[in-house]
Amino acid sequence: MFDNLSDKFSEAFKNISGKGKISESNIEETLKLVKTALLEADVNFKVVKNFINNVKEEALGEKVIKGVNPEEQFVKIVHDELAKTMGDKNTELNYIEGGITPILVVGLNGQGKTTFSGKLSLFLSKKEKKNVLLVPADTFRPAAKDQLITLAKSMNMDWFDSDLSKHPKDIAADAMAFAKENGKDIVIIDTAGRLHVDEELMGQIKEVRQGLEGLNPEVLMVADAMTGQEAVNVAKSFHEAVGLTGVVLSKMDSDARGGAALSIKHVTGVPIKFISTGEKMKDLELFHPDRLAGRILDMGDVLTLVEKAEAAIDKDDAEGMMKRLEKGKFSVNDFMKQMDMMKNLGSMASIMKMIPGMGGMLKQVGDLTPAENEMKRMRVIINSMTKKERDNYKIMKDSHIKRIAKGSGNTEAQVRDFIAKFKQMEQMMGGLSKMMKGGAMPGMPGMPGMDGMPGMPGLGGKKKKPRKKGGKWGGGFF
């Protein structure tokens, strides 16, 4: 997400590094690079001009804060202005208390409307505890109905069996009546799209909205984040014709340049409410401008990481593991559960980017695919072990290793390598257990990047030269 923009910002900030104070002369080159980075990210030129002027005004008017170097102050100013440009804070959906809230999902073809409708139903059902009804109302693409019903079944979500021979406004009215009879809180209506904005499409959506006007509907436009300024122009057209209440950016996990996210609110006045961050139904996040600004500037996004952890990690499992750890016990089963927890949080790269400063370290580490592949291989080995072997790997003899190798499709050497690595992990967790009992947590020895934060200036660590062998994850535990 915005990797290229993040790199350009990092390069720009080097110009002010080591300076004694912020002055017009030493931020001139930095602002020039920031401006170029934003324009290359396909941000609206008026937005860029306004952004640069505001940052310059704030930076030159900023009083020197003792103990905070000029570079950190400048980064903070840029962060706050980025957040302000994208909308300052998250704008939540406007629910009708004690009634039914209709949500119209609109946009052009191929932007991800139907997929988003499914994701939103899961989000509102699980996180907001709402009783949701999915409604297919795309009368131009009948396959969209099958797609939405398939998604609904996969998530155990209720859907409305729309009669596609009817006008979408009549389908919406029928769905609202059905929702009232069946005690629904939210009705998500997946409307038709086109390859481009046209009068017929807008007229149809207007009629659907007018039919729901007394119910104060949410109208969310789904836009492909990769399309940059085109997404902004489409949002402007939809808003002028229909009146949007929010925008959703899909495909934010791709190499999105950032133009749409950084321009839409400023140009249209319509807030971004959600971002889609992956292909799975659970990959939907509320849009928080300040958090995204933090990710772009490698300041992390700890709040989102905590929220993901709360949703993905079983509290009882985690507490049970901590109790066993306090007793100095750490089994292969515990290790497997840790891997499951990590998997539920997302890819290793996405997790690292949410930890302050880790984005820069990730660039040094490089491709994490070998690490993730090795974790998959470890999982297969563990699945080939018996319950007794997982509880106590020390009972394993040569015959056990031979059986596990055959059952997992690995060599005996690879199984022995896993056991050796697990022994190291066990020792590390034993050390961690002693620190927990002693009330001290100076670091996590053996965990890459966590022992004094190597390679992260300003956070207590020194840069280490990469090893010739095993420098990337895959040569250590993973």
Automatic annotation (TrEMBL):
<feature type="compositionally biased region" description="Basic residues">
    <location>
        <begin position="461"/>
        <end position="471"/>
    </location>
</feature>
<feature type="binding site">
    <location>
        <begin position="250"/>
        <end position="253"/>
    </location>
    <ligand>
        <name>GTP</name>
    </ligand>
</feature>
<keyword id="KW-0963">Cytoplasm</keyword>
<keyword id="KW-0342">GTP-binding</keyword>
<comment type="function">
    <text>Involved in targeting and insertion of nascent membrane proteins into the cytoplasmic membrane. Binds to the hydrophobic signal sequence of the ribosome-nascent chain (RNC) as it emerges from the ribosomes. The SRP-RNC complex is then targeted to the cytoplasmic membrane where it interacts with the SRP receptor FtsY.</text>
</comment>
<dbReference type="Pfam" id="PF02881">
    <property type="entry name" value="SRP54_N"/>
</dbReference>
<keyword id="KW-0694">RNA-binding</keyword>
<protein>
    <recommendedName>
        <fullName>Signal recognition particle protein</fullName>
        <ecNumber>3.6.5.4</ecNumber>
    </recommendedName>
</protein>
<feature type="domain" description="SRP54-type proteins GTP-binding">
    <location>
        <begin position="271"/>
        <end position="284"/>
    </location>
</feature>
<dbReference type="InterPro" id="IPR004125">
    <property type="entry name" value="Signal_recog_particle_SRP54_M"/>
</dbReference>
<keyword id="KW-0378">Hydrolase</keyword>
<dbReference type="InterPro" id="IPR036891">
    <property type="entry name" value="Signal_recog_part_SRP54_M_sf"/>
</dbReference>
<keyword id="KW-0733">Signal recognition particle</keyword>
<comment type="similarity">
    <text>Belongs to the GTP-binding SRP family. SRP54 subfamily.</text>
</comment>
<dbReference type="InterPro" id="IPR027417">
    <property type="entry name" value="P-loop_NTPase"/>
</dbReference>
<dbReference type="Pfam" id="PF02978">
    <property type="entry name" value="SRP_SPB"/>
</dbReference>
<dbReference type="InterPro" id="IPR004780">
    <property type="entry name" value="SRP"/>
</dbReference>
<feature type="binding site">
    <location>
        <begin position="190"/>
        <end position="194"/>
    </location>
    <ligand>
        <name>GTP</name>
    </ligand>
</feature>
<keyword id="KW-0547">Nucleotide-binding</keyword>
<dbReference type="InterPro" id="IPR022941">
    <property type="entry name" value="SRP54"/>
</dbReference>
<comment type="subunit">
    <text>Part of the signal recognition particle protein translocation system, which is composed of SRP and FtsY.</text>
</comment>
<feature type="binding site">
    <location>
        <begin position="107"/>
        <end position="114"/>
    </location>
    <ligand>
        <name>GTP</name>
    </ligand>
</feature>
<dbReference type="InterPro" id="IPR000897">
    <property type="entry name" value="SRP54_GTPase_dom"/>
</dbReference>
<dbReference type="InterPro" id="IPR003593">
    <property type="entry name" value="AAA+_ATPase"/>
</dbReference>
<dbReference type="InterPro" id="IPR042101">
    <property type="entry name" value="SRP54_N_sf"/>
</dbReference>
<dbReference type="Pfam" id="PF00448">
    <property type="entry name" value="SRP54"/>
</dbReference>
<keyword id="KW-0687">Ribonucleoprotein</keyword>
<feature type="region of interest" description="Disordered">
    <location>
        <begin position="459"/>
        <end position="478"/>
    </location>
</feature>
<dbReference type="InterPro" id="IPR013822">
    <property type="entry name" value="Signal_recog_particl_SRP54_hlx"/>
</dbReference>
